Amino acid sequence: MSPSSSNNRHSDSRIDDNGARLLARLQRLVFTVLFLAVATGAAVLTHRHHFAFDWTAAKRNTLSAASTQLLQNMPQSIRVRAFISDNEQLREATRQMLRRYQRAHNNLILEFVNPQREPREAQRLGVRDEGELVIEYEDRRENVKGLSEAQLSNALSRLARKNTRWIGVLTGRGERDFLGETRNDLGQFARHLQSLGMRIQPIALGGGHAIADNVSVLVVLQPSTAWNDEDFRPVQDWISAGGNVLWLADAHGAPLDALAKVLGVTPEPGMLIDPSSRLNGQSSPEFIVVNGYASHPLTQDLQSFTAFPTATSLAWEAPKGWRFTGLAASSMRSWRESGDLSQAVRFDAATDTRGPLDIALAGSRAHPSGHGEQRIAVFGDVDFLSNAYLGLGANRALGSHVVNWLNVDDKLLAVPAVMAEDLDYDPDQIARAVIALGAPIILPLGILVFGLLRWRARRLS
Question: pTM higher than 0.70 for the full model?
Fold first, then answer.
């Protein structure tokens, strides 16, 4: 073979190597450009459009169909204010829950408020607990304690209603002022109902005028002077026609015997005393502090105590066709005191009645029209909703629940309870052994063997 042919072959080999290197560089350059183009495009898309995928077995990070449909029927902006102090863990949990709603509603705004820095705002909105949410929609708002979908969606459902509820309040016989500002009045509770989209309408007793048809709930406050027949006639007609009634009794007011007979409920004379009651860590025997409630739709979400400052007990016997449920009762150590309260009190078996005694009850029957239910609620205390005591415990929440229930606004969305099926793993004995040995022994050995085989393969190549 001649030297010239050998040189030509070496030259051709160098040309082939240079071409291969150039092609490899070109391929890397094209790959880099395409990769950067795809990454840039993805960044632009994620900035303009939000995508989320729920790969959990039970879709526990996705809103139910009922909640999604509800949000689609709420076109206006929704404002959620979360009252959380410097607790980043709770704030992040709140963000994660509200993101589900923000994906289904493009105008839901979440704001965080530190109640320690803005105590007046928290007080104005009736916020009592850390993590409490204030949801506002149009001109209505509602407070929510808890982060479950059922609680949030049902609050939104109540805020979404468009038909106005009128609350009629009987006046004219020395009752407390439902719209007043003194300690004994109920003005703060009235404003709270208005913030929920309800309207308050005073109704003067006397004159025999019928109660308007647009009234959804009739509020009866204990008068200081007794009703006459003319006062009671419109109330009796209202109840006979299927009207809903909230009776806030007062042991110090004039008795309403005619109303008691129609409803089957009698506030008993005397005031309840409970030596075991404690309020804010102090002994408060004149307060009836209730920590547990009967199972009923209007008490199912109550998560705190209620305090009844001047309660009396209720004697009741459901009239034919009615179903009654005692909602709250005093403790076994309580009694109804019939003696002079200005002096030291103690239980007297001859004159006093030992507890537990009913303080609140709810009743319902088939509506006389044949459609739906007629409902009543009776409390042996009005002070728990007064300006002086509305902020105690769950007093405000209980009042809201009662009025919503009487308005027949207790229909809850069908929000299913989602179980985390993909987190429920119960391995057998063999699986437990594999898990126990795999992480500390088998997995490191496997990585070591794989590394040795790769090293050997490179040495031989």
Answer: no
